[in-house]
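note to self — DONT lose this again. spent like an hour looking for the file last time. sequence + predicted structure for the chain T wanted, 253 res
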Amino acid sequence: MKQVYGYPDSLYKIPTKYCGGCGHGVIHRIIAGIIDEMGLRERAVITNPVGCAIWADLYFDTDTVQPAHGRTPAAATGIKRVLPDHLVICYQGDGDMAAIGTAEMIHAANRGEKFTTIFVNNAIYGMTGGQMAPTTLIGQKATTAPYGRDPNEAGMGYPIRVSELLATLDGTSYIARGTVNNAANVRKTRQYIKKALEAQMSGKGFTMVEVLSPCPTNWSMDPVQAVEWLEKNMIPVFPLGEIKNTLESGAAK
């Protein structure tokens, strides 16, 4: 009998610490499966910073490095330059990448650093208590925005569309946004991530896949409600699909 699915070699078989309904487990599964498929487990390095992603090194049976909050792109830059034949992945959340790590992320992308970022966007700070993040939607409640994000209130501003921002930079070669809200979108997201990782190993410039992910705990919802909320509210603000793709045109950096 042909085996269609199996447990990835690149994941440890241990219980998860992630909350019920969280998207991180699915995203881990996608990444690990692709690493196995590419035969790169012995040459894969995952950099995971502060945030819910801080637990990623518990699950991936690959080399991992845990940089300071927001400094993952700097660490990944050094690793990839020293080990150019390795698959180097930044695994970052929205608070880490789009707030404290904004400068690191933008300049690494602008330089065309040849690693891949998996940007998990759940529109809130997950591990530290549900504070408003740079990607929190207008009207969305958070512990630091109990009445909902209001751009007219001092200090709140608007949600940042990180993928669209990075797509304007000449150093980026592939930018896509997927989600893990249903099986069809999981398959599409997997395609995006595989394309980004293959582009990295072909020597292309900065690649990133943003993944919209539910956070039932900090959204104060059950898992089903969280998926419905993501579909209704997040996807219209953060549209899915390939946002920049220079790979086929031959114009990739």
